[in-house]
Amino acid sequence: MRYRKLKTLVRGFVLATYFLCGVMAWAQTPSQPTTSSQAIPAPSMSAPLAVKEASPPSPEEMAKGDPSGTLTGTVNDIPVSNLKTGLTLADALNQVGQNKVAINFVWTLITGFLVMFMQAGFAAVETGLCRAKNANHTIMMNFMVYGFGLFAYWVCGFALQMGGAAGVASLGGAAPLSGEFALHFAGKTWGLWGTHGFFLTQGGTYDVAVMVLFLFEMVFMDTAATIVTGGCAERWKFAAFAVSSVFLAAITYPLFANWAWGGGWLSQLGTNFGLGNGYADFAGSGVVHAVGGLSALACAMILGPRIGKYNRDGSSNAIPGHDITMVLIGCFILAFGWFGFNPGSTLGASGGGNLRIATIAVDTMLAGATGSFGAIFYMWIRYGKPDASMSGNGLLAGLVAITAPSGFVNTIGAAIIGLIAGILVCLSVEFIDRVAHIDDPVGAISVHGTCGLWGVLSVGLFADGTGMGSVKGLFYGNPGQLVAQMIGVATLLGFVFTLSFTFNLLIDYFVGQRVSPQAELEGLDIPEMGALGYPEFVLKMQGPGVTARAV
Amino acid sequence: MKFIGLLLAVIGWLLPVASLTWTSSLAARFIFALIGIGLCLTGILGFLNRAYVKHAIWKK
Does ipTM surpass 0.95 in this model? Predict the structure, then answer.
């Protein structure tokens, strides 16, 4: 009896426990969704939107004016595809997409305009570093390289460079640029040059995105072309300069730029051979500056030094420029333009990590500053005075060196890269001048050639993996990137220099590169240009044994 | 001299590029790239430029 009572008691306890657990489980079961967002079905893309909820200003309100700027730019400004239906979600989303591309168009165009203005900086630097008797000739080379280069680049340069570069997402795709001539070798594809975009019409390239890309890439090419005029100043025939510039803009620059930026084989070293992200040159230390600097080296070798630059024993004489104020103002103009050069190379400010432009701009500033520090301290310690022209060249050297890595490095990396470039440019100028006996009146070979190559290598060392394309260098654990950059340097030295040298040798044979000794002593303004840069100056003829004066 | 200089520069370019298909070793590719750059510089500054300096205007 007792046992039966106990059994009933236990059974009751178990049932009560089950019941209690059941109640608790029921209480914890998530309730059925009742939120309004899930109760209402998603709006159709073509269904009209409730525009009234956005409280757009009435026509009467707008007619009173908008001094505070709070009424302008509302839902009323979104174009509708169908007036009967009114604004739909599809309309709103299309407008969002167009706004993104529009921001990127405007960004790329304005930064391109800044880069174009760098031509003025180059003109001032190069003319200031030359003698007054060559002022007209030097600035005319800087002036006309814009026209010669632009024409050649429009005819074929752009097509060879970017004809196969489709997929520029920030500019809406640039889909017509879809033709790349490539070789298939060793089981890999080696892109060599583009085939769409001749005269900006062939291959369907009469396209707004293509036009934006053309403008931006053209001013980059022109920067490379104008570097050469500095290295060859004060002795280059104007006709030879014109032909040489056209060739650089039409063939030399576009080929290397295609390999680096247009989808060519250098950019594919990562995909094809596992070398990091392939050759990475964010804004062109190699593509623009090293190409210009090495072409200047080729031309300067062929031209030989100016009369009076070297003595019979091989010692060199300094030939100071005529206007250091013009030189340093030119450097500032260039530094300003560099904010177009580097941040603009994102080809956009909206979407796709393009807000990196802030870091790129600061990297650019820093490297320029540390470059001028490096140069001024080197000159101060070595020669006892802070040299003005080398300070300017140090600024430019830092800017040149940071051009390739600006999209990939942090500010500490940028400062170190600039500082090294500032010292490197001084060492290079001394080597080129005293050891190699190559006459470079403005230091173009050292600033753009040497520091351009250093900039290319520095990507393989300092890229930290947080920037554009997540490029990572040796110091951040990817030695393959450094090898890719070294192959880029070998290509610049072995291909670009050789091509440029060969073509300029042909110009020397058929046209003649160098002016006559008499013209050089007199100054190139009258013999080459027909007018003096400074007609009211009394200019001394320079050279061994020459004492006459010309007005 | 001039021709040898240009030839060395071209070889200095082609060597590291060709080495990409010969080996997949990163160290080997690094060494080939280094040799390539060295050959280019030797060709340009050691041979080509020396040939021009030999007959430079200031030596006459």
Answer: yes
